[in-house]
From TrEMBL:
The keyword Iron applies. InterPro entries: ARD, ARD_euk, RmlC-like_jellyroll, RmlC_Cupin_sf. It catalyses: 1,2-dihydroxy-5-(methylsulfanyl)pent-1-en-3-one + O2 = 4-methylsulfanyl-2-oxobutanoate + formate + 2 H(+). This is acireductone dioxygenase (Fe(2+)-requiring). It is a peripheral membrane protein. Keywords: Amino-acid biosynthesis, Cytoplasm, Dioxygenase, Iron, Metal-binding, Methionine biosynthesis, Nickel, Nucleus, Oxidoreductase. GO terms for molecular function: acireductone dioxygenase [iron(II)-requiring] activity; metal ion binding.
Length: 140
């Protein structure tokens, strides 16, 4: 839980960004009145996919859900609300959707330059996916 009301000056967020080398950030507002091509974007976010880099999101306002696959390929729903931060590791299948409030404002963080490419399932041949699957096997 971080202080979303004071994210510009929050020393804890600054410490996390420094420790994890999150050098790039922007803010996205997902709402029909704020996001161009809202309907298309919502469908894209909900399509099961993975990234080749970690996905870091910090909820500044509103709420929504990240769905991730467990080691048995079953969905786990993670409720996110104001003040929550999540890091989805490279190679994990996931999707995002809004809840009944249909609004979220989130900070997107990256190590280095942002990479926006999502690879829809199936994308099992990428090294990031293989590394993630090895991590799951080693943890079991």
């Amino acid at each position: 839980q971080l202080d979303a009301d004071n994210y510009e000056t929050d020393p804890r967020l600054k410490e996390i960004r420094s420790a994890e080398n999150y050098s790039w950030m922007d803010i996205i507002t997902i709402h029909k009145d704020k996001l161009p091509n809202y309907e298309e974007k919502i469908k894209t976010f909900y399509e099961e996919h993975l990234h080749l880099d970690d996905e870091i999101r910090y909820i500044l306002d509103g709420s929504g859900y990240f769905d991730v696959r467990d080691k048995d390929d079953k969905w786990i729903r993670i409720s996110m609300e104001k003040g929550d931060m999540i890091t989805l590791p490279a190679g994990i299948y996931h999707r995002f959707t809004l809840d009944e409030n249909n609004y979220v404002k989130a900070m997107r963080l990256f190590v280095g330059e942002p990479v926006w490419t999502a690879y829809n399932r199936p994308a099992d041949d990428f090294p990031a996916r293989k590394q993630y699957m090895k991590f799951l096997a080693d943890e079991a």
